[in-house]
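step: validate -> pass
step: tokenize input -> pass
step: predict -> running
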Amino acid sequence: MSGISDYSALLMDAGDYSGNNGIAHLMPRFVGLAETKLNRVLRVGAMEKSAVVTLVTGDGDLPDDFIEMRQTLSADGRNLRSWSLQELSSRFGSFGGNPIGYAVVGNQLRVRPTTDGDIGITYYAKLPGLTPATPTNWLLTSAPDVYLYAVVEEIAIWERDAEKAGSAKALKDQAIFGLRINDERARWGNGQVVIGEPTP
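step: predict -> pass
step: emit ->
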């Protein structure tokens, strides 16, 4: 798989693997669909990014590539807890003060009690989409097999070939499993188990 160096190589290999080299004009669509599905299931360290969200009366815009929150910190470094929107609203309303919790509402971060200023977040970001202008990204570099089988699966779905789609999906899932194992080893391989104190 090391031969898949960029977007063009991915398209060529996907065409070869699928046995259908006559659909080059559809390949950008297949890549986009594959990336959409991968964004739903992948959660690995390479997707983590940090950003600052500027709040106005407790609300601020999330980054365009936001998928899921990992951590939210107040301006003084306190960890803010995730609350349901209903609980956050009923508990704090529009009262101001030091923020305690947050909810994600559409593409916005809602922090309560309300405050102005900056909130630091760490979040899972969408894959940077592959295009001729952006021919590579971290996933194609670290796990080209995931990309290849994901695109081949989309081709098979378009062809209405259930058997080929099922085979490609199985290979994709296996590749994703391997990526997750490597990610866990990289992040936690030398970790220590910490047992918390009993709670009353």
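step: describe -> Residues 54 and 118 are 4 Å apart (CA to CA).
step: cleanup -> pass
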